[in-house]
Fold this protein.
Amino acid sequence: MSYRTISDVHRALQQKEVSVVELVQASLAAIAVRDPQLGAFLRTRPQVLDEAVAVDKRLVAGAPLRPLDGVTLAVKDNLNLVGEEVTAASKILERYRAIATATAVARLQAQGALVVGKTNLDEFAMGASTENSAYQMTKNPWNTAMVPGGSSGGSAVAVASGQSLVAVGSDTGGSIRQPASFTNLVGFKPTYGRVSRSGLIALASSLDQIGPFARTVEDAAAVYQVMAGRDENDATSSNRAVDDIAAALNQPVKNMRLGLPREFFGPGVDPGVTAVVEQAADVYRRLGATVCEVSIPHARDALATYYIIQPAEASSNLARYDGIRYGRSVRDGQGLSGIYRQTRDAGFGAEVKRRIMVGTFVLSAGYVDAFYYHANRVRAMLREEFDRVFDQVDVLLTPTSPTVAFPLGARTADPLTMYLADLLTVPANLANIPAMSIPGGFTGDLPVGIQLMAREWDEAAIFRAGAAFQRATDWHTKSPPT
Amino acid sequence: MNITRAQTEQLAGLVRLELTAAEIDQLVEQLPKIVDYVAQLQRVETTTVAEALPPTEQLRADTVKPSAATDAILAQAPDRTDRLWKVDAVFS
């Protein structure tokens, strides 16, 4: 019993070939068999079986199928579920239990999704390999000597290895798209403000967005559609009406205008990766789209801009972990400031400490204008350049990551080499625009993702282009060895 | 860019991190490299540009309503007296 897509699951449910309880049992069984080697999950949710029983009862009583009935879902462990542990893969949140469910997850559950477990990540989503977790290492099912990408590596591996049908993660600088690229999945970061961040443990509040992992663009659309839309618990969530993505999925791409921004094909990008993107451009040409070269000059400055703004915001957000109100607390009688200092030293890992230090440095008196304000001015310039380029083209096509998955341990000694993994994904976060990684091919035995980006709020253009690509190719049907 | 050991220790104090000598050693080596990397941004001319502002769509009306699950929050306190969080002496 193995269903690869939501429509497979729904067909089977309608034909009474399988029950929701059986689907959930199959997911939990796959976790029991596969996860000891892969390390995708930090913990499973035994109560999901009761939730499945309730859905079966509904269906037996004749209720119509909801969009996500029978869909097993893995949730990154920086998203809250009420009353349950949530760690952000940090020791500082030991013993913490969430007081409310994240809006995005609550919406998925309300449409039938069954959360089978919480997945591993880089601590507080700081990393590109999931090696910074305080709890465990997650391995890439395509080659277990390789990283799965990060920071949502656990969510990616859960889907790629067939442990859950879909997953959600968060993307601050590529944390959904890059692991999707490394594991042959679709990973999508919506426009900033499209999905509520309420209940997401914050990394960098002007950059974070929640989004789906799935095998197909169609399934990613189904998950995205349910999560999207205004939530009054997040003042940055948008009032705009959400497009009906299902309609966009079937539109042909004839005469659609695709741009290849030359700054995304420069030095540092593996030739094997570039070749995959060039082949993808040919696929689009054959489908009748026009493809032209464009330029976004300040994309070259995006990584430096990002590594000022993101640690600055992170250092502010992480000030709340102080050992006073919840989570870990070290108390050995050295006064209030002793609680703060010792709790934070014991609770945070090395990368988190580094970013707190860098973030505070770029915000400190004397440096704030030259670093933080300056970076925000460059961010404004970059946004304007993206705006202009989207007057010429509908969608941008680039590599998602400069390389395929790299070996475990290869980049842990030098933080800057790890930061370089984000080179091609951070521009979309800085520009607030939607972006998706889609399976585009292979170099050697490892998958390569292609990235599609569109104008703010034009998620539909990405889904249209992505679905057309998957109709014309079969890369997304390839599964890792078991 | 030169970031001295004293500056690194001062920063650690500001962010309330009690770092070990080994951690300070490592940061003294790493911080300047990271800051040098991001400092390349300074060649970008931005004098005529306004900063990007985070978008805020709509603020809630400022009305009083019940707060989140107070009991569930207080239950997680590492130490408390009744409905108050308990901490070590502020001045020691």
Chain A touches chain B through 73 residues (CB under 8 Å). The CA atoms of residues 182 and 405 of chain A lie 5 Å apart. The radius of gyration of chain A is 21 Å. Chain A is about 40% helix and 15% strand.
